[in-house]
Amino acid sequence: MRILLWTWALLLLVLGVIFFYSTSIVGDELVTDTEMRSHSEIESIKWLISDHQTFASEKDFAEWVDAFGFKLGSRITYIVGGRVIADSDVIYSELTTLDDHSTRPEIIAALKDGWGSNVRHSDTLRKDMLYVASEMSVVSGVPTGVLRLAVSFSKVSERLNVLRTNFIWIFLATLACAVLISLIMSHNMSRDIRTFSELARSIGEGNYSKRLRVLPGGEFKPLAESVNAMAQSIERSMQVVHDQKGQLQAVFQGMREGVMTLDSNGRIESYNTALEDMFNMAESSVGRTPIEVSRRVEIQDLVDDMLGESESGERAIQIDLMDSRTVEVSAEPFMDQKGVRKLILVFYDITEMKQSEKGLKDFVANASHQLRTPLTSIKGYTETLLHMPPAKPEDGQGFLETVLKNADHMDKVISSMLALAKSEQMGKKLDLVPVSAHEFMTRAINDVSPWAEEQSVAIERRTPDGGMMVMGEVDGLLHVFHNLLNNAVKYSPDGGKITVSAEDDGESIVFSVEDQGPGISREHSTKVFERFYRVDENTIDGSGSAGLGLAICRRIVKNFGGEIWHDGYGEGTRGARFCFRLNKSS
Predict the structure, then answer these.
(1) What is the distance between the alpha carbons of residues 94 and 96, in angstroms, rounded to a whole number?
(2) Which neighbouring-strand residues pair with 435?
(3) Comparing C-alpha atoms, which of 350, 358, 290 is closest to residue 324?
(4) For residue 214, what pLDDT is reported?
(5) Helix segments in 215-257, DSSP class H
(6) The dihedral of CA 160, 162, 165, 166: what is its sign?
(7) Interacting residues of 401 by C-beta distance below 8 A, sequence separation 6+
(8) DSSP string, 117-151
(9) pLDDT above 90: percentage of residues in the chain
(10) Alpha-carbon torsion 78, 84, 86, 87, what sign?
(11) What b-and-e string marks burial along 123-155, b requiring 16 or more CB atoms within 10 Å of the CB?
C-alpha cells in the first residue's frame, strides 16, 4: 500500500508539472500567435488606409473604420494624441465620451517602439481583450497617430480551456488506469506475498516439501527461486538430520553397553534397551535418580561427585551385580546447547573380560603346573645321574626312561598349546569347504584300531549311507575324530566297546563317540572342555595327557560353525558319550 501511495503521489506530481508546463507553453504560444496575426492584420489595415483616397473628414474616416471593423470582426481604434478619432465598436457621435487613451500600455509602447501589445479587461466591451497597436504616419488625410486592433481574448481562453479540459480528462483516465493496474499488480503482489508467507509457515510447521510456483519474468522470480532452493536445502538437511537421528537412535538402542543420560539435577533423561535389561528398569524411570532405579549407592555417589565438580573429567567405577555380573560404570560430563552441564553414564558389562582374565590366570597357573612337575622330575633324575652315577650303565636305564617320559609329556603339552593357539587363530580367517565326514571318520577309526586291538577294545560304527558331506576343514575334522577316539580307547576297560555313530537331522549331522569307561560326573561335565582341566588335577598318566585335547576339539568345532558337548554323566550307566554337530553342505 505504501508503494502504491508513493507511486500515485509521484504520478500526480509528474502529471501536475506536465499540465502546468503544457498549458503555460500552449497559452503563451496562442497569445504569441494571436499577436502575430494581429500584427499582420494591422499592417493590412495600414496598407488599405494608405491606399484609400483621402478621407474628407474624421467622420468619414470613422465611418470607414466602422464598416471595415464589422467586416473584419475585430475592434479597430485610431488614437491621435490620446483622443480616439475612430472606433469600430463606438459610433462617431460617442467618441468624445471615451477616455484618454494616451496612458494605455500598448499606446505608450507603440509611440516608443513602433509596436505595442497588452492583454487586459475592457470596461467598454466587458471582456478580456488583446490590444495590438502600431504607430502610423500621416496618410490619406489621416493625421499621425496609433492604429490599434483589439482581438477578443476569449477565443484564446476557450482554446486554453478546451486544452485544459482535455488534459484533465486524459489525466483522470491515466490516473484511473494507473489505479486499476496498480490494484491488479497489488493483488498479484499480495497473492505472491501470501504465498511466501504460507511457504514460510509450512516450513516452520515442518512441511519442507512445499514449493512456490515460479512465474517466468515475474519480479518475484529470483526470490521464489531462492526460497525454493532454501526449502529444498532445508528439506535435504532435515532428511539428513532425520537419517542421522534414526542412525543414532539405532546405535543408541543397539549398543550392548547400557547408556543413561542425566540432566543438571542428576535425574534420568533417557536410557537405552541394554540398560533396561541390565537393571530391569521400570517405565517410569525417566525423571528419577540413578539410585532409585539401580539401588546402587556407588552409582549415585559417582553422579553427585561429577555434577558437584565443575572441572572434573571422565571417571569410572566397577560394581558387582546380584547375578554375578561385573559392570564398569563410566561417567562423562558434557554441555548442552544452553551451556548447562549434564552427564552420560555408560555401563560396560565386563563379566566376560573378568572371566577371561581369570581364565588366563588359570591357564598360566595350569600351564606352569603341567610343565613344572615333569621339569622337576627331569631335573631331579638328571642331577642324580650327574652327581651319583650308577656303577653299571644298565642301572641308569630306568632313570633315563623316566626323563624321556617326562620330556615327551612336556613336548605334548607344548604341542597341544601351539595347536590350540593355531586353531584359535585359524578361526578368524578359515574358509570352510564341503568335506566327507564318512571318509575322515573311517581314517580316524583305522588309525586308532591297532591300539584298540591291543587294549581288546572293539569299535562299532553306526552311520547312514553316503559321504555325510559337512562344512569344515580336512585337518581339523580328522583331529576331532582322532582325539575323541583316543580318549575313548584310553578310558575303555579291557574287552570294552566303543560306538561311533552319526545322525542326519536335516540341516546338520550329529556325530557321537561313546565308550564304556568310568564316565564323567555331572560336576565335571561342562568343565572338561576348559584348557588344562583334568578330573584329577594331580595325575599325569602314562600317555602324557595335558588336558588340552577337548579344548582344542571345542575350538575346531566352533571354527566350523558347530557345537560340541558331553552327553552322559556316568550315573547308573558306565561310560562317557561325546557329541558334536556340524552343518551340512548345501
Answers:
(1) 5
(2) 470
(3) 350
(4) 58
(5) 221-254
(6) negative
(7) none
(8) EEEEEETTTTEEEEEEEEEE--BTTBPSEEEEEEE
(9) 11
(10) positive
(11) eeeeeebbbbbbbbeebeebeebbbbbbbbbee
Please answer whether residues 2 and 182 qualify as being in contact, where contact means their C-beta atoms are separated by less than 8 angstroms.
no
> What residue spans of 320-396 are helical by DSSP H?
351-387
Question: What is the signed CA dihedral for 308, 309, 310, 312, rounded to 10 degrees?
Answer: -140
Q: Is the pLDDT assigned to residue 382 strictly greater than 50?
A: yes
pLDDT band at 316 (very low <50, low <70, confident <90, very high): confident
Predicted pLDDT of residue 240: 84
Q: CA 20, 22, 24, 30 torsion: positive or negative?
A: negative
Distance separating alpha carbons of residues 477 and 432, to the nearest angstrom: 11
The DSSP output letter for 584 is B
Q: What are 116's strand-pairing partners?
A: 133
Residue of 528, 576, 582, 570 lying closest to 550 (CA atoms): 528
- C-alpha grid cell, residue 399: 632313570
Please choose, from the candidates 498, 539, 542, 543, the residue with its C-alpha nearest in 3D space to the C-alpha of residue 517: 498
User: Mean pLDDT, the chain, as a whole number?
Assistant: 80
Q: Can you tell me the distance from the alpha carbon of 435 to that of 474, in angstroms, rounded to the nearest whole number?
A: 7
Global pTM exceeds 0.70: no
Name, of 220-229, 414-423, 429-438, the range with top average pLDDT: 429-438
Compute the radius of gyration of the chain from its Cα atoms.
Answer: 65
Q: Which three cell numbers stand for residue 114?
A: 513602433
Please measure the distance between the N-terminal and C-terminal CA atoms of the chain and give it in whole angstroms. Answer: 81
Q: Which pLDDT value is given to residue 544?
A: 47
C-alpha cell at 347: 555401563
